[in-house]
Amino acid sequence: xxxxxxxxxxxxxxxxxxxxxxxxxxxxxxxxxxxxxxxxxxxxxxxxxxxxxxxxxxxxxxxxxxxxxxxxxxxxxxxxxxxxxxxxxxxxxxx
Amino acid sequence: xxxxxxxxxxxxxxxxxxxxxxxxxxxxxxxxxxxxxxxxxxxxxxxxxxxxxxxxxxxxxxxxxxxxxxxxxxxxxxxxxxxxxxxxxxxxxxxxxxxxxxxxxxxxxxxxxxxxxxxxxxxxxxxxxxxxxxxxxxxxxxxxxxxxxxxxxxxxxxxxxxxxxxxxxxxxxxxxxxxxxxxxxxxxxxxxxxxxxxxxxxxxxxxxxxxxxxxxxxxxxxxxxxxxxxxxxxxxxxxxxxxxxxxxxxxxxxxxxxxxxxxxxxxxxxxxxxxxxxxxxxxxxxxxxxxxxxxxxxxxxxxxxxxxxxxxxxxxxxxxxxxxxx
Lengths: 95, 326
Ligand SMILES: Cc1ncc(C[n+]2csc(CCOP(=O)(O)OP(=O)(O)O)c2C)c(N)n1
Ligand code: SF4
Ligand code: SF4
Ligand code: SF4
Ligand SMILES: [Mg+2]
Description:
The complex is a heterodimer.
Chain A (H helix, E strand, L loop, with lengths): L18 E2 L11 E5 L9 H5 L5 E4 L4 E4 L9 H5 L5 E5 L4
Antiparallel strand pairs in A: 2-5, 3-4
Chain B lengths: L9 H6 L15 H10 L6 E5 L3 H6 L4 E2 L5 E3 L5 H17 L9 E6 L2 H5 L2 H10 L4 E6 L39 H6 L5 E6 L3 H13 L4 E6 L3 H4 L6 H10 L6 E4 L2 E4 L1 H8 L7 H5 L14 H21 L9
Parallel strand pairs in B: 1-3, 1-4, 4-5, 5-7, 6-7
Antiparallel strand pairs in B: 6-8, 8-9
Helix pairs in contact in B: 4-6
The complex binds thiamine diphosphate, iron/sulfur cluster (SF4) (3 copies) and magnesium ion.
Thiamine diphosphate binds next to helix 3 and helix 5 of chain B.
């Protein structure tokens, strides 16, 4: 692991954060992972709207949902709320 | 005053860019993170965000990372409303001097319940009295979560927290929740609303109204916290919905002090048989687990009585009366 420790002169004034959080992957936190069933899905987009981690992306071009496992923390809210029962949570590594 | 009946479609919202992005470090299933993400989708143009210390500030700006795609200023625990006042005043002066390149810049202040009901209330009250034009968002997870679940003025009666622990004698927090949104209505500001992450459309519409209305706007958002309320993270939205369906957290707004119920609560006023009992909500959360012991059962009755009392008071304010109670 590389770790650059900066001196006070190198740190931005007022501790301004300068790296986008999207460079920090939270996907490896998960124990369970959502598996999407496009057959059952009605594309209501509810899951995408309520995911706390913006991990369910809507691809405008091909009108498909994409689960971004780099950020999904496996909370299971999407599976709990999906009105079409189109998302199943499975243990990470088993799906 | 603008009262545009805004409507957002799901497609329009998911296609809007994320201004509060992935990679934040809130716990899995965090209710406040859902609120922030959705609220930022209702912005109408250039926006400056400022936030009091608390979970949402901490998880979104862990140095050197930021989950914000808008200018974001972290302030102390107690003074986010003062900070928002200063930002708004500066924008006004810049505009007058012709130094603002945008026609309009909105200001949003975020704070938790600790930062609003308790330590931040004087800054908030002052900003409301001075009439600054900004939207204050209270994301209410009903305790000081970031420092380890201490009770606040927003923690409900009977909840066990680390500073109101349920023991053999005392069944959790003795006091009731402070009616903070009504306190803000009493400031005679143009817009006050309550919202829940279980009704995304209502939350977005109210956010937009709060931004459009000139002068101070205050929105109290119900945001369950799996960590502090002790439930499975997949239940965050379900619990928020139950909060509304039991009338523990009714949805309403005031425009110039006139109360009106929002659809999800109005239906319960019209069809009281759909109003659920508080036990349905309480039993899902381990912070209330002790209330189901025989010796503390009376606390559940007290909670139900207080919920009914406040609900009936709200109905009167909305010029509605509860039909027969089922
Ligand atoms: C003056 C002051 N006192 C105490 C703290 C420590 N502190 C940081 S966050 C926090 C709790 C915040 O609670 P709340 O506003 O409810 O937000 P939450 O963490 O629940 O999202 C406390 C006590 C502080 N930062 N400043
Ligand atoms: S909530 Fe279910 S049905 Fe709706 S888009 Fe998501 S997976 Fe499809
Ligand atoms: S499990 Fe949670 S984090 Fe993962 S996609 Fe579903 S809602 Fe988002
Ligand atoms: S403690 Fe609660 S509010 Fe704080 S990040 Fe975790 S889930 Fe969210
Ligand atoms: Mg809190």
